[in-house]
Amino acid sequence: MHAKEVISRLSDRKPTILGSEKFHEFAILLPLVDISNETHLVFEVRSKKMRQQPGDICFPGGRVEKDDINERQCAIRETAEELGIREEEIDDVIPLDYMVSDFGRIIYPFVGRLKKPEGIEANRSEVEEVFTVPLQYFLETEPEVYKVNFQVIPEANFPYDLIQGGKKYDWKVRQLDELFYQYNDKVIWGLTARILAHFIHLLQANQS
């Protein structure tokens, strides 16, 4: 194959994330509500009947489906389904930075405003409980940070003879910062805490 043909085949392509075709895509919403003239964030406690992460605290959201127009519409649809509200009651939906996780997921977070929080009626098949936390709490509270170390364990038939150093190869052990927010009896951690911290950082970086 000549260089001209290489350029011709690739000239119109748009770059994406390498391997993203194998990733699962999710969209979530950070819902804002006004309670007694103060802005709160809405959180969910996942149903204990859920197969994945039962009882964990999260934002409403879910997997991007083929029928979704885009990730934003998915976040709105999932929020409406989980909180028992109409999609029209979700307004001012703005994208945050998307996240590529280590476990084959791309997560698209958005922030938006719920017009009628008093109408929330959680879908009990997915949501155990709904609660709110004042936004000001997060603006004034730094999360606790703990390190998680990832160990490299090659499979039994790994071809050490094909790499420099063989079994003595200097694998780089990765560390992950795991964030924790504690509010009353609620513990917010994991991807939810990471996305929340990113949101708070954006607010603080853009304050006038």
Automatic annotation (TrEMBL):
Alphabetically, the GO molecular function entries are: coenzyme A diphosphatase activity; metal ion binding
- Which cofactors are required for activity? Mg(2+); Mn(2+)
**Which residues are in the Nudix hydrolase domain?**
22-156
CDD domains (UniProt xref): NUDIX_CoAse_Nudt7
Sorted keywords for this record are: Hydrolase, Magnesium, Manganese, Metal-binding
Magnesium: is it a keyword of this entry?
Answer: yes
Question: What protein does this entry describe?
Answer: CoA pyrophosphatase
